[in-house]
Amino acid sequence: MDNAQTGDEKPKKSPLVMTIASVAILTLVGAGGGWFLGGMIAPKIGKVVEEHAAAEAKEGEKDAGLPKIDPKANGILQLDPVTANLAYPSTNWIRLEVALMFNGEPDVKMAEDIHQDLMAYLRTVSLQQLEGPRGFQYLRDDVQERVDLRSEGRVSKVMFRTFVIE
């Protein structure tokens, strides 16, 4: 007991200093490991990007999206992308690309009318109506019904190519 009162013991380090030191050491170890792994992975990513750019240059396509469908070959006509604001919330927008399978020769005038009708319809849809797989199925059914009404049976199928909500 005499020792405790005289102060011969070494003073203990503050827990705060020990915590700061261990966080600093772990941060340095993490940064070093990330730098090392990044150096190993980065050359591979750079090579893939260069190969992709070379492939695009070879193809000579300006449109990097999905390839266009030849309408004469199979009676399929791809519509221009439909982009519209949703009814609620109006800050969200939807982009939809569809292709129409015609019975016989594709009708461009009818396809333009269908495009305008789809744009008008999508402006009335709310985000809550599109949520989940069931919402997407309802959208598909509604679009197919509108196309059937507008085309009077000349369009046999509506094929969704892209569907984006932001």
SSE layout and pairings?
Elements: H1 2-6, H2 15-59, H3 71-74, E1 76-78, E2 82-85, E3 93-102, H4 108-122, H5 127-130, H6 132-151, E4 155-165
Antiparallel strand pairs: 1-3, 2-3, 3-4
Helix pairs in contact: 4-6
Concise summary:
The protein is α+β, with helices and mostly antiparallel strands and 166 residues long.
* Principal-axes shape call: elongated
Helix run count: 6
The average pLDDT score comes to 83
Radius of gyration, whole Å: 31 Å
DSSP helix fraction:
55-70%
Kindly name the structural category: alpha+beta
* Count of strand segments: 4
The helix/strand series, from N terminus to C terminus, equals HHHEEEHHHE
- Tell me the strand percentage band: 15-25%
**What can be said about the biggest beta sheet?**
4 strands, antiparallel
Model regions low in confidence, pLDDT < 50 over at least 5 residues: none
What is the first-to-last residue Cα distance? 72 Å
Textual characterization of the structure:
There is one protein chain. By secondary structure, this protein is of the alpha+beta class. Helices cover 56% and strands 17% of the residues. It is built from six helices and four strands. It has helices at residues 2-6, 15-59, 71-74, 108-122, 127-130, 132-151, and strands at residues 76-78, 82-85, 93-102, 155-165. Strands 1, 2, 3 and 4 form a four-stranded antiparallel beta sheet that branches. A hairpin with a 7-residue loop joins strand 2 and strand 3. Helix 4 runs antiparallel to helix 6 (132-151). The radius of gyration is 31 Å and the shape is elongated. The protein starts with a helix and ends with a strand. The model has no long low-confidence stretch (mean pLDDT 83).
